[in-house]
Amino acid sequence: DIKALEEMKGQESITSDGRKVEIAGNIGTPDDVPGLLRNDAEGVGLYRTEFIYMNRETMPTEEEQYISYKKVLEAMGEKPIVIRTLDIGGDKKLPYLEIGEEMNPFLGYRAIRLCLQEQEIFKIQLRALLRASVHGNLKIMFPMISSLEELLEAKYILNEVKEDLKNENIEFSQDIEVGIMIEIPSAAIISDILAKHVDFFSIGTNDLIQYTCAVDRMNEKIEHLYQPFNPGVLRLIKTVIENGHKQGIWVGMCGEVAGDMRLIPLLIGMGLDEFSMSPISILHARRLIRSLSYEKCKEIANEALELGTAKEIEDFMAKISKTL
Ligand code: PEP
Ligand code: MG
Predict the structure, then answer these.
(1) Can you give the residue ranges of the PEP-utilising enzyme C-terminal domain (predicted)?
(2) Smallest Cα–Cα separation from 63: which of 120, 119, 122, 124?
(3) Residue 143 CA: which ligand 1 atom is closest?
């Protein structure tokens, strides 16, 4: 009901026993900011920058990008804004960037893989991001990291761009957090190692489910195998959160699962720190989280992760949610 949701505005996202989390929003363009503000987002957990590059004939310039990033940072004041570097490829193509036909585009030349090879494109975006950083609380996130080498290479390039800006006397913030999406199983499995090199993780369940279960997220014929409640996926998520916490970094989630009311109690129980979702879900999630006990959610998560099928976990959560 609308009144109960309205009452959530200005409230903390905190469980009944005091576990505080952050609920942020996912956006694609600066035009999404009013929706964030209307729904009292505590930040932006995922700004998908590929939309700046799409539906146009030429590459966006550094200046154009800078203006878009600055708009979002300024509009959100001191709130944290996670901007993800270009995640093109897979199902998203650019008319002005020929990447050739691929047998398996989702397993192909995309996101950070492309940026590490097309370094000019990557560097222009990083320059725009760094310049925009003086206008707010920017965090930079790399998508589709599958190995430590890729992460170190991306960080190396970021540092090169910082050096360039310093030499040109262009200002940028000195304390920008750098994080990665955990959306590929190989990264989730070595998340203990990756955690030593970043300030945060954000779990991308849309791709993590796809790659863990080997189920094309666009293929309707196998839709029933694309399971947010899959026990293998949930165990991986728990591992990632634990590994992040062991290294003292925060762990968020920006895939669809983060805004799924059926799964939020599990994620709270696993210790997730930040939830980023479609802005319209934010107040619903806050209301739910404020009704939960962290201690109880921990017990539920442990119990759920002993179950063998997605169906069992889903049914268990449906049943338990009535008692929460
Ligand atoms: C994800 O994979 O969960 C994610 C948030 O990224 P995208 O949906 O843009 O691939
Ligand atoms: Mg993804």
Answers:
(1) 5-292
(2) 124
(3) 6
CB 226 within 8 A of CB 194: no
pTM (predicted TM-score): 0.97
Nearest CA to ligand 1 atom 6: 204
Q: Are residues 282 and 41 in contact, defined by beta-carbon separation less than 8 angstroms?
A: yes
Q: Kindly report, residue by residue over 30-87, the tens digit of the pLDDT.
A: 999 999 999 999 999 999 999 999 989 999 999 999 999 999 999 999 999 999 999 9
CB 20 within 8 A of CB 14: yes
CA angle 198, 201, 203 (to 5 degrees): 155
Q: Kindly give the distance from the C-alpha atom of residue 90 to the centroid of ligand 2, in angstroms, as a whole number.
A: 10
Write the residue with the smallest CA distance to atom 8 of ligand 1: 206
Which atom of ligand 1 is least distant from the CA of 210?
2
Q: In angstroms, what is the span from residue 142 Cα to ligand 2's centroid? A: 10
